[in-house]
Amino acid sequence: MIWTREQAKALTDRALSFSKAEETQVTLTGGDRANVRFARNSVTTAGASSGYSLAVSAKIGQRVGTVTASEFSDASLQRAVRNAEEIARLSPENPEAMPLVGPQTYATIQTYFEDAAGASPEWRAGAVRAALDAAKEKNVDAAGFVETSAQVQAVATSKGQFGYGRFTAADYNLTARTTDGTGSGWASKSYNELRLLDPRALASAAIDKAARSHSPVAIEPGKYTVVLEPAAMADIIANLAFAADARQADEGRSFFSKKGGGTRIGEAVVNEKVTIFSDPAHPMAPVLPFDGEGLPLQRIDWVSKGVLKNLSYSRYWAQKQGKTATPQPGNLVMEGGKSTMDELIAGVERGVLVTRFWYIRSLDPQTLLVTGLTRDGLFLIEKGKVSRPVKNMRWNESPVFALNNLDAMTASERAVSGEGVGGAGFSIVCPAARIREFTFASGSDAV
User: Which CATH number belongs to the domain containing residue 69 in this structure?
Assistant: First the structure.
């Protein structure tokens, strides 16, 4: 069983009682995890772990020191607190260090589900067996993992703040390869509830994609209409939202800076079909109601019908600018459309169907231009039908340009990107989308 609110409160109170610093914050994280990993159609490891750690941050003036402890006896806690205080005294001053927060009020959000917390070894083994049986039937090699977890996070300060939350996660990831190494497929999902995870359907999708992507051919680089599956769209919207930093915009260092000074809040920046927000209570991606500083989370509209509504303000920058601080959100949600995936594909005369992206890197913050590669299933679309597999491509594109060229979308769903965005630590909800004039810069021999 994971720690209760009362157990977490007792530990954080005890740790804070040993502090002699001006201000102290303690953060408890941990819980229970269990997993099965497999490769080349065989189970490689299986195991379970249970444990907790306590991060102690001591603040003396504008100096901060942090130490993490995994033993919670009085002697261990006192040692951690003294070490954090000593590190703080030796650290350089941080002129942007902010006072710790006091008592807060948090919403009640269900992030913990008994089916995921109680997932059995037999369930995890069955989830893997479904993948291995399907892979052998299709003569492909499968590798991946299944993990279920129940976790706790508690944040407390010497100024009276205390936040406690527990959450569950059921994670599945599978990569399938043809035996000759020319075809590859992939599927990954993460949910708070076990009942939402369908390992058999995910395995079938990845394995079928691997078989269909066998012996791809190269196509010329250039601009193509693309149909991005939700995993690829997750990276597009994440790269937009993560760049929406108020300080960079105010200092003239980002796409969201207005020429002549100020920011572009209130301006249309992408297609009017685009609405992106964060909401800790969203039913498809519920998250804990507070951030790492203990600030309460609430719904924040980032883009509404194409118009930039908000930028992310740290506590320091919000105070400097006379604004309200924006706690770090735990999820990102993009509203979808009414098209089906078949309808998205049917609307493409000649284009590309993309499974996912990976190895994404920034090129130009002023335009948000990024570069990356496709992976695990790239297919040519001709006259409204998927015609053949094609070799992977390097792409150079800005999420701003891509979202301005957005043409149609499916309904939104919980997604995990190829870069890992959308797992238990940060949830993504987004649609698949059709986007015009997406730029592929060169070919890639990677599978």
Answer: 3.30.2290.10
